[in-house]
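Query structure, 134 tokens:
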């Protein structure tokens, strides 16, 4: 099971190891290439980018996995940017979005749902506009 440096540190400290011992263990496994945060972030983003927004992935990596925002940004700069509009379309289809049948209240609920998922307002509005033009 692949882990980040922050996850391993937390696990060792929770198990009762002294901070110095935990740091030595981390350096040891890093020395053999078993622990590589950049590789972990790249794999995490590539695997989940078709399911979650960039913002949501960044938050999971920072707050759940303990990865620095600089490293996340570096990996995103190296990767091919994913078009989040494709994912928005998939989610709207899953929710059976039809502008002709959708009232303003339902439209606002869908917008709020997508915003909570971390998508940008401009992307959401442009995809919804595409649906109404069809």
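Result returned for the query:
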């Amino acid at each position: 099971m692949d882990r980040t440096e922050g996850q391993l540190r937390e696990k060792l400290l929770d198990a009762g190891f002294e901070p110095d011992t935990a740091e030595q263990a981390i350096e040891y496994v890093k020395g053999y290439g078993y622990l590589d945060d950049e590789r972990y972030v790249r794999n995490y983003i590539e695997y989940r980018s078709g399911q979650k927004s960039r913002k949501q992935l960044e938050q999971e990596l920072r707050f759940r996995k303990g990865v620095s925002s600089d490293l996340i940004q570096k990996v995103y700069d190296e990767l091919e940017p994913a078009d989040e509009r494709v994912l928005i379309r998939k989610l709207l289809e899953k929710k059976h979005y039809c502008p002709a049948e959708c009232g303003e209240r339902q439209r606002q609920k869908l917008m709020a749902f997508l915003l909570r998922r971390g998508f940008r307002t401009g992307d959401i509005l442009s995809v919804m506009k595409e649906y109404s033009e069809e």
